[in-house]
Amino acid sequence: MRPVLSVTTVSLACCALLAHSFPFHSLSHDDSLLGEQRQRPMGPGRIHTPSVLDNNNPLSGNTAGDYARFDNHRVYRVEISSMDELKKLEALVEAENLDLWTNLRIGTVDVRVPADKVALFEEATNHFVAGGPGAAATVMIPNLQDLIPHQAPSAAATSSPPVVPWNYTDNSFWTQYHDMATLNNFTEAMIKEFPQLCKRVSIGKTYEGREVFGMVLHGYKDRKKERDGRSHRKKKKKHGHKKKSHKDKHKKKNKKSHHHKGKKHGKKHGKKWATPAPADSEERLSLPSQHEKENGWGIWKWIESWFKEEEDDEDYELDLDLDEDEVSSEWEEVYDDDDDDDDDDDDEDSDDSDDDSDDEEDDESELDERFSRLWDAMKLPNISRKPSKPKKHPKGIVIHGGQHAREWIGPAVVTYLAKELIKGYRKNKKITRILDRFEFTIVPVLNADGYVYTWEHNRMWRKNRQPTSVPFCPGIDPNRNWGYKWNTGGSSGNPCNEGYHGPEAFAAAEPRMMADYIKKKDNVVGYIDFHAYSQLWMSPFGADCSQTPKDEEDILEGGIGAAKALFDMHGKKFAVGSVCNIIYQASGGSLDWTYAEGKVKYSYAVELRDTGRHGFLLPEEEILPSGEETTAAVVYLMNFIRLREKQWGF
After folding, report:
1. Can you tell me whether residue 615 is helix, strand or coil?
2. Do residues 490 and 514 share a domain?
3. Residues annotated as catalytic (active site), given as ranges
4. Is the domain of 254 the same as that of 129?
């Protein structure tokens, strides 16, 4: 029989310095285990890590090799109406090492209480919370074990058939939660299936050596093809469409050898095209120095293509749609346009044969004089023969789930969002627009070590798995360890607490690697960190409640619109506001750092379904509707940013 570490020993080790702050009750002194472990053989493929954690430690959450049980653990909802009540509840939670399911705040606070501490908790809250006995705390979940699998989900999954190629149009993937290996397989499958749209991106490695990776999504719109199609449709509508005769084609071929008709390109009809410079304006004759490999006639052909060949007496102008977001890219498209005959080209008028040859010669002489200047210019060093296609620098959007390990709905929703963006490209107008204009980095699980631990050992694990100063209390809360105003309130310095902020900012691998990624990209304008639960759409700040973002109006307007789009899908209401206004002070959070230090204007943290009936154990039948409503919200928000931020070139 292995030795059992008692609650007495653990409590004294973790909380000796904290117990004096709680004026109501002393610590419990029985030897019952948090989770009431039952011995179970290790499943095939299970990992057994020899360490002090094997000693049935209640604060480690389980015996290695077993799946933690929570028989008769209760989740209470406590009504807090004053700062005095809040501070007393905080002291109780800290002293008894209780598991907060929601942040401490004025209003309602959800707390998980082990069976052996139920009486203590009820007596304490009745003592300091207004309303008298029985009014202070409401039981939300009477027996937590009823909502948790009796066997480790990862062990149960070992008997399942291997993952087969996945049909991305099938939503059956989102009828259940998936372990880390399956989520990784999903990401790899999407990258392989849609290589033009997706590429793999590695964010970094966790303490236990797992790679945190995701996918980068960005559109591949063929603007030349679409422009040619639009131009042809406009011409067709304007001139009609009829089959050219052999004579017409022969005449056009001869005509193209001269290319320009002086009479037709006189000041009257060609005033929008014929100028002292061999282009529509001198500014258009920009000669960047990045491309020097083209042969000498490249610039001639480029300029030649800017002369419009008139087919009637109407004036012409550049054929650019109002929604074209990269006008300069038309340069290369015009340059690349060939002179081959096409039966679908516009018909040419028969009176073109009446053009005067003397006028043609005069016009050609004038053109020769103009081009001679260009030949002299081309002798200069570092002069491009061809206009370069502008480099695209799409603004970045970073989205991830799974920063807290037990919040399984986050990775499920993030993968659904990724699928919908991929599936909707070139089929859904709004999705196509945002993928053409933004580069999405989507990471299903940021806290990979913790997520694996929830599947193999303890469903209620929140933190990562890094060692701390207390050997039997591993883990740092990644979302209390970001570096902006770290450890200024709303987190814990107790390594055994679920909200432990770590020994220093960015001590945890997960926030450090994501912050490094955002800084390296240097173009991220949107960030969403998905959590559970409470149905909140939150904005900065959380560390300093006296601080207001300078972009607060835009940020809140985007969040309110996203919540409205979400509500329109399935009728779920999400509160919108800053972390401080919606919940309470919480320092070391991701969205504070991304906004203040990462310079990401539209930074949000979203608490998904539900409002407490199931808490972190949201039923699987709610995965799909949660994914649908969240996708609607994100698509709205991205289009809001696209339209609001015109100065970014959208």
Report:
1. coil
2. yes
3. 607
4. no
